Amino acid sequence: MSTGKETAGEGLATGIHNIMIEDHVKVTCFSEVSDDLTLHFQIIRLPNQIYAWIGCNSAKFGHLYAAAPTRPNNTVSVASLLAGASDNTGSGIARRIVLKTGLNVILACNIPKENPMLEVNAEKRLVQKLIELGYAKPKSKGLSS
Amino acid sequence: MDASELGFPVRHKKLSVDITGNRTDIVICSYDDHILVIATQIGSLGTIINARKEEGVLTNPTFHVSVIFGKRDEPVLVACARQLIEHISNSGSSRPLILSLGLKDHSLGTLKGIVSAVIENCMW
């Protein structure tokens, strides 16, 4: 994956903008270029849940999914809430984010279906950022797929 | 707090208000084809509602509002979405609304407080 867009002279690292109000809600927005396409990421951290949006070359909302670890044996459940299906890009990304981070996630994603490398790159970057920001839960109990 | 970050295609606004004694965190995001409003008192998105305008050919627009995640038996939530989509429509925008409400109480006072706070800070 290529480097992110720089916002020179502002003291912000690679286009990342963090705005926090008393730790309840934190919004992080950043963009990265991947194979001539621009991926936009928006993460809204709430105390008990994460909302994330991934945009590919546009600011269209895309499909919406909910995913969370599910008792009793810590599997991951995914539900398509708006316009998506289990074979759409966002469904798999949402599921794997929960597997890798243990978070309860609502994901909106407009990445097209026919580009698996783009999907992989977007997911990798988002998971990386979630871990970097300290949002991922420690892997004390593994999530089963 | 209005955050139109340089170069980022989605504008958003974040604020925190007291509504009927409960701290309420509100985030409003403006996508190309949707408006997202999150209003939470419980630290999660709560119930998610989709509201859109349906253009009539000869009649005034009607609105379709449905719960897509969460409480389906709480009319105040649907009423809140309906009020906001009507405001969006009256402002000249035809973008649908995704409204997420995580509320501690579902009183009319809370509904009015949320509608008022969102409209005051609207991004459409």
Structural class of the secondary structure composition of chain A? Answer: alpha+beta
| E-strand count of chain A | 7
CA(first)-CA(last) distance of chain B = 16 Å
Number of continuous helical runs of chain B? 2
Cα distance spanning the termini of chain A: 27 Å
Beta-strand fraction estimate of chain A: 35-45%
Large-scale geometry of chain B:
globular
**Oligomer category:** heterodimer
Biggest interface, CB < 8 A:
A-B, 36 and 33 residues
How many domains make up the coordinates of chain B?
1
SSE series of chain B:
EEEEEEHEH
Strand and helix order of chain A: EEEEEEHEH
Give the structure's gist in a few sentences.
Chain A is α+β, with helices and mostly antiparallel strands and 145 residues long. Chain A is built from two helices and seven strands; from the N terminus they run ββββββαβα.
Overall description:
The complex is a heterodimer of chains A (145) and B (124). Chain A is of the alpha+beta class. In chain A, strands 1-2-3-4-7-5-6 form a 7-stranded mixed beta sheet, with helices on one face. Chain A has a domain at 33-132: 2-Layer Sandwich (Ribosomal Protein S5, domain 2), CATH 3.30.230.100. In chain A, strand 2 (25-34) and strand 3 form a beta hairpin. Chain A contains 2 helices and 7 strands; from the N terminus they run ββββββαβα. Chain A has helices spanning 89-101, 116-132, and strands at 17-21, 25-34, 37-46, 49-56, 63-70, 75-82, 105-109. In chain B, 23% of the residues lie in helices and 39% in strands. In chain B, strands 1-2-3-4-7-5-6 form a 7-stranded mixed beta sheet. Chain B has one domain: Ribosomal Protein S5, domain 2 (2-Layer Sandwich), CATH 3.30.230. In chain B, helix 1 (75-90) packs parallel to helix 2 (108-120). The mean pLDDT of chain B is 92. By secondary structure, chain B is an alpha+beta fold. Classes of the chains: A alpha+beta (145), B alpha+beta (124). The interface between A and B is medium-sized, with 36 and 33 residues.
